[in-house]
Specification:
By secondary structure, this protein is mainly alpha-helical. The protein contains four helices and no strands. It has one domain (2-96).
Length: 97
């Protein structure tokens, strides 16, 4: 559900590329396809990643600095929770192997 919430948040705020990415990951995970976990974790690393998304009036994706602060805080909270859950699933799968 966290990834679904993240995908909805991203879509509602104009980040459709990342919304589609995360929604696909959520679908794979619901189907018990571990690829969704790996794919989501890849979204959070490296240049041009989801971690680089920044809401800011200068980027055209926030109306005010106050709105940007709120959006960035929500993005961090959702991605952090998603990361922690994905890492936990990853550790569980590795422990079973």
């Amino acid at each position: 559900m966290t990834l679904d919430d993240l995908a909805r948040f991203l879509r509602a705020n104009g980040e459709t590329k990342w919304a589609d990415w995360v929604a696909q990951d959520a679908a794979w995970i619901r189907a018990d396809d571990f690829h969704g976990v790996r794919h989501f974790l890849r979204a959070l690393g490296g240049q041009g990643s989801l971690s680089d998304v920044l809401f800011n009036p200068g980027n055209g994706n926030a109306a005010t600095l106050e709105e940007a602060d709120r959006l960035n805080a929500e993005l961090v909270a959702l991605t952090t929770t998603g990361y922690e859950l994905a890492k936990s699933l990853s550790r569980d799968v590795e422990a079973r192997a």
